Amino acid sequence: MLNRYYRKKFDKEKMLQDASILTRTEEGAADSSITFYEVMPGIELTYNFFHGKSGAEAESCPETQEMIEINHCRQGRFGCKIGKNGYVYLGAGEIGASILGVEKTNPEFPLGFYEGVSILIHVPMAAKSLEQMFPDLVKQIYLLKMQIEENDGGMMIRNIPELRHIFDELYHINSQIEVTYMKLKVLEIILTMHLVPYDRNSCYPAYYKSGDMEKIKAIRNEAVAHLDKRIPLKELVDKYGISLTNAKMCFKEVYGEPYFSYMKKYRMHKAIHYLEESEKSIAEIA
Fold first, then answer.
1. Measured between alpha carbons, how far is 155 from 103 in angstroms, rounded to an integer?
2. Per-position DSSP letters for 224-272, written without gaps between them
3. Tell me: the pLDDT tens digits for 224-265?
4. Domain coverage including residue 271
5. Alpha-carbon span 247 to 234, nearest angstrom
6. DSSP code of 232?
7. pTM for the complete prediction?
8. pLDDT in tens, 39-56
9. In this structure, are 63 and 118 located in the same domain?
10. Which of 169, 195, 221 is the last residue of a domain?
């Protein structure tokens, strides 16, 4: 199974009849896991559940350079630095495709959690599995790989209803037909990928500079460390040396919503946590 490219990032492996589960524990968080199902030789479907902020990418090697991953985010947010470019982020409902072995540095889950599915395709092996019965799918797989490589190893696919509803169905599978259903849905996704309008300039949103992203994370960390002060964003951007316009765009890209909306929700979650952990009144928390 293709899980061998992820084992170094996990603590335990459990084998089931039709699946393999890799798990790890991050300090202060619940267990994270990836469950691998072999759909057919060369194609696997994974269910990804992460708690904590550290991502886990497959190792980069010649074999993973021949593999494609198609990711769908159901909840949370994932970000990383692709190759020599800047940071990109995948949010709830979005789909991304990349070469599995492309250099991805600083993988992270900025909201502290992530749930989604991935389709892993070993292109040469999958082509052999499909060439007799589905030659058109083989052409589509090679075309997709070419498009991804032309786009520096990765591309974002946002707001494509034809794909989104197929991915949504993968989260609600009857266990009695699990593997067969997965096979049909994965083949449907690969076939439907040709409907995605390919525009090299729009497949990925604008890359964000590493320096700006580090400043945004510092701004967020300072804001959540002083919840009682309600620090204006303008004050923080002046302190960290980033323009207000750029800060607003970067913050939304990393955390999925504007600064003030994020901070409002963060305060509410903290208030609920304090109430659960102590006997403080709402007035004391406020």
1. 14
2. HHTTTT---HHHHHHHHT--HHHHHHHHHHHHSS-HHHHHHHHHHHHHH
3. 999 888 899 999 999 999 999 999 999 998 998 999 999 998
4. 210-285
5. 9
6. -
7. 0.85
8. 999 999 999 999 988 888
9. yes
10. 195
